[in-house]
Specification:
23% of the residues lie in helices and 31% in strands. The chain is globular, with a radius of gyration of 20 Å. The longest helix is centred in the N-terminal third of the chain and has 14 residues. Strand 12 and strand 13 form a beta hairpin. It is built from eight helices and 18 strands. Bound molecules: pyridoxal-5'-phosphate (PLP). The site of pyridoxal-5'-phosphate (PLP) has 14 residues, from strand 12, helix 6 and strand 15.
């Protein structure tokens, strides 16, 4: 645990806190770190939030050499601003960087940058119960390359934005479509890294699904289409009786921090049987409750799944009891309403 500090004496920003959406509201400052041709990172510093300049031949623009993270700071019931398991994001970015041939950010520098952004923009953190503060670290190849090879140097930036819920309409049952036309990730590809290119590739299936009236897409495993993999940018869970299953990690699935947290809460605090293994579409369609997890989405119930011509309905208005409980426990810990038994919170400021 770090020591907390008293917030700088700035009045809260005049924003419409009750109508926040999941979109960018620019804040005062961002954290920028750069490395040189020897791939040694500088100290990093806060700078005013601004547009960037880079070479037209930058590695990220030409070959998509970039990875990102997504995390949140919360204003808690105890009037503190806390981060949730930031060391997990730091570690995951090291893995993504390694996969994409980028020099990793040392974990302590990652956390130093995130904390600096939160402190300097504390007046943009939504008040208790009115949203959260989304933090977006990005690492990319900024130096010029013409041939396909790693960029000669890199940049690391952290910006943040106050946000509301990821899906319009709050905690509601999502309407999903199983994609038989597209896969999210290939075996031995970059599915387990938060590589920027993965998300560009997911836009077309997402837009098609939205045109057909769905909220998101369920992706099947490319290596075996009987198995489910993920929901857009969230991990998927199925509940049957006292058992909760989620696809095992091991290549094409993104190892979500929320996924890991929900597995822990279910096993340790709710006495559920949890399993990480191959999960078939058939058993998802046969489950009592299905939900998806992610920092942005939190824990979102899945109300309907359409597979080709068939639609399975899990919930319309009434959210399943396990999904509800997991949502309440997880958000309870994040807001310091429920005891932080696993030492997941990292206080940054007292207000
Ligand atoms: C970021 C992400 C998740 C969720 O990860 P969290 O750490 O829980 O936010 C799940 N799937 C994909 C594909 C993602 O990009």
């Amino acid at each position: 645990m770090t020591t907390t500090e008293v917030a700088v004496d700035r009045p809260l920003q005049d924003l419409d806190w009750d109508n926040l959406t999941f979109s960018v509201t620019p804040t005062r400052s961002m954290w920028l770190m750069e490395c040189d041709k020897e791939l040694v990172w500088n100290e990093g510093k806060l700078e005013p939030f601004r547009n960037l300049q880079m070479s037209p031949a930058a590695g990220v623009l030409n070959y998509g050499q970039g990875a990102f993270e997504g995390m949140k700071a919360y204003h808690t019931e105890k009037n503190r601003i806390v981060l949730f398991r930031p060391e997990e994001n730091a570690r995951r970015l090291v893995d993504s960087a390694t996969r994409l041939c980028m020099p990793p950010i040392p974990e302590e520098k990652f956390i130093e940058g995130v904390e600096a952004v939160v402190r300097d923009n504390a007046d943009f953190v939504p008040p208790f119960g009115r949203g959260s503060f989304y933090i977006r670290p990005i690492l990319w190849g900024s130096g010029p390359v013409l041939g396909v090879k790693p960029a000669p140097w890199f940049s690391f930036l952290i910006y943040a934005s106050p946000v509301g819920l990821y899906f319009k309409g709050g905690l509601r049952c999502l309407n999903l479509k199983v994609s038989h036309d597209f896969h999210r990730a290939a075996p031995h590809g970059t599915g387990n890294a938060k590589a920027i290119g993965n998300y560009a590739a997911s836009l077309y299936p997402l837009m098609q699904a939205k045109e057909e009236g769905f909220d998101e897409v369920i992706y099947l495993k490319a290596a075996n289409e009987e198995l489910v993999e993920e929901v857009g940018a969230a991990n998927i869970f199925a509940v049957k009786g006292n058992k909760m299953v989620t696809p095992r990690l091991g290549g094409s699935i993104l190892p979500g921090v929320t996924r890991d947290s929900v597995l822990t809460i279910a096993a340790e605090l709710m006495d559920m049987e949890t399993e990480e293994r191959d999960v078939t579409l058939e058993e998802v369609l046969d489950a009592d409750e299905v939900f998806c997890t992610g920092t942005a989405a939190v824990v979102m119930p899945i109300g309907k799944i359409t597979d080709k011509e068939n639609t399975k309905v899990y919930c319309e208005e009434q959210i399943g009891p396990v999904t509800r409980k997991l949502y309440d426990m997880l958000t309870g810990i994040q807001k310091e309403k429920v005891e932080d038994r696993f030492d997941w919170l990292r206080p940054v400021l007292e207000i």
